[in-house]
UniProtKB/TrEMBL annotation:
Subcellular location: Cytoplasm
Domain remark in the UniProt entry: Consists of three domains, a large central CORE domain and two small peripheral domains, NMPbind and LID, which undergo movements during catalysis. The LID domain closes over the site of phosphoryl transfer upon ATP binding. Assembling and dissambling the active center during each catalytic cycle provides an effective means to prevent ATP hydrolysis.
Binding residues annotated for ATP, in chain numbering: 192-197
Domain Phosphoribosyltransferase: start-end pairs: 20-163
Quaternary context: Monomer.
Domain of life of the native organism: Bacteria
Parent-record interval covered: 1 to 199 of 371
Protein name per its UniProtKB record: Adenylate kinase
Enzyme Commission number, as recorded: 2.7.4.3
Family to which the UniProt record says this protein belongs: Belongs to the adenylate kinase family.
Enzyme class: transferase
Species of the source: Mesoflavibacter profundi
């Protein structure tokens, strides 16, 4: 792994594919243990979660169902709380154990929308599993049931996560190289903010 350039920014190696694999395996095995004979419906949040979902269900050692919803958030000029539903739920989840699979939980605004979506679905339980979590950025009170890895409040790419469209295909995770004067920019949103970005 070495430093990479995407568009105008440089990123340094941060989390290896091996470390990601370890975190995903742990989450999948712990969840399977906790759910006993319950057959969960995994709901991946597109786009960012596509790689996690693919790996997670392969590690999950019991029967399960998989579906996706697609959300987009807008940053910069518009509030990040303005989350759009591009593809919604297409099946009845009444009485089911639903496990949300998220690539990353940052401010929690997307999670807020997820809770809104599931409020009227009469599910048996809604569990949240996220591969990455930025505790310093999280502004909500929703419980996070399964966390792969806590990370600092810095912008990352790879393993499904993009910088303005690039980087989703990378099997490992990279962190934006920052100088001191860029720290505020990173704290208040990913570079490219101001355009609509897809989760
Ligand atoms: P939220 O702030 O709503 O918790 O996160 C919104 C979305 O922003 C996430 O689903 C994710 O797609 C994106 N996001 C948050 N933090 C990062 C990051 O560090 N890198 C990238 N590429 N996307 C992020
Ligand atoms: Mg994005
Ligand atoms: Mg996401």
């Amino acid at each position: 792994m070495k430093t990479i350039k995407l568009h105008d920014k440089e990123f340094r190696p941060f989390i290896s594919a091996k470390e990601i694999d370890f975190a995903v395996t742990n989450m999948a095995e712990q969840l399977a243990k906790d759910l006993k004979d319950e057959v969960p419906v995994f709901v991946g949040i597109l786009n960012g979660s596509f790689m996690l979902v693919s790996d997670f269900v392969k590690k999950y050692p019991k029967p399960c169902e998989v579906t996706f919803i697609k959300l987009a958030s807008y940053e910069g000029v518009k509030s990040t709380e303005d989350i759009q539903r591009l593809i919604g739920l297409t099946q009845d989840l009444t009485g089911r154990t639903v496990v949300i699979l998220e690539d990353i939980i940052d401010t929690g605004n997307t999670l807020n929308e997820i809770h809104r979506i599931f409020k009227n679905e009469n599910v048996k339980q809604l569990l949240i599993a996220t591969l990455f979590y930025k505790p310093e950025a999280y502004k909500k009170d929703f419980k996070l049931h399964y966390i792969g890895k806590e990370i600092p409040n810095k912008f990352i790419v790879g393993y499904g996560l993009d910088y303005d469209g690039l980087g989703r295909d990378l099997p490992e995770v990279y962190q934006l190289k920052t100088t001191q004067h860029m720290t505020n920019l990173v704290l208040f949103g990913p570079p490219g903010a101001g355009k609509g970005t897809q989760a």
